[in-house]
Amino acid sequence: MKKLNLGNITAGLETLKGLQEQNASVARSEQIRADLIDLAEKNSYAADDTEDSIRDLADQIEECGLLNPLGVIEHNGRYTLFSGERRYKAITRHLHWETIPCRVFEGVSARRAQLMLHIANGAREYSPARKLALYEEYRQLLEEMKEAGEFKGGIQRGVAELLNVSDRQVRTYRAMSEELTAEEKQAVQDGTMSFGEAKAIASTRTAVSNIKTAKTGTSSAFSEGTSSEPIDKANFAPVAEDKTGTSSGLSSGKATARANALDPQQRLQLLEDVILSDRIWKCKDLYLYYINEMPTPQEAYRNILKPEYGFRGGSLETTDWSGSYTCIANHLLLEPDSGFCVRYTYIEVDAAIRRLYRAAKLIEK
What we know:
Layout: H1 14-24, E1 28-33, E2 37-38, H2 51-64, E3 70-75, E4 78-83, H3 85-95, E5 99-106, H4 110-120, H5 128-147, H6 155-163, H7 167-179, H8 182-190, H9 195-214, E6 231-232, E7 237-238, E8 240-241, E9 247-248, H10 253-260, H11 264-276, H12 283-293, H13 297-305, E10 311-317, E11 322-328, E12 331-336, E13 342-345, H14 346-358, H15 361-364
Helix pairs in contact: 2-3, 4-5, 5-6, 5-7, 6-7, 7-9, 11-14, 13-14
């Protein structure tokens, strides 16, 4: 039998949405003995089920039959649920069927099985507080799958699709996940802190962090200046410190190694790829502006490069890079899915645009 293949997952909305259609073509329908079916080891969705809702569902199944079979994954003669735990409980607790109609998959890794569970439960409506918890589950899973070569594409985009929210909303959940303490997150889940209050706390902490990052030590928007913070000079990325004095955050572990691995040519290539992505600035607009106005770097900064309202951000993907970008008043920050930041002044952006113009790459775009 053909085995489920998630190795071809790529970036884009079709990545996860098409998976269910793909699953349908590689599974078989079978009556499985109820005592051979095991619950998923990690299913946070089950916390939403109540005994009353299970009893009501049992009554519906008894009256109308099981309209949707369970989704199970076969392994060594037993079957693990990834879709239909509430139906399984209704049948085994109240109807006592010996066998249950199932769609059976095999050859699926634990990580892929967990992704299938998330997709199967994606149609439910969840509160913003619940989505915050799910965001952390989804992101951790996709990061593990990407490291194992089972997921290809942008982590943020994949999370947005699983949550069925916009990239902007995902950025909100990401900020809350990173800025809130474990106690604050639990308070949101318990309802003792409103989602709006938690969002405001995270936004304030992010704003303070951005202000520290943006310090240059001079009034010019185009000079690097100096800062009291330690700086990753190879990539102009501010580095946070923890209370022990050791580097953390943007400079921790593998992230620092990757950041420092960007030599000047790699920095330049990344910036050019981002410009040509057409995501932050439209290449056509840049081309027409530079050819018609012949601006100075300062004029280009004021008139077309700087974000109109002092801030602009979102997800971004090129052929070899995926992550998020943030444009603030005096520089561009690129943050790959791996977590470190690369900073460019608008003087650097202007110089890269002029090189692309001279090389006729803006015209090609």
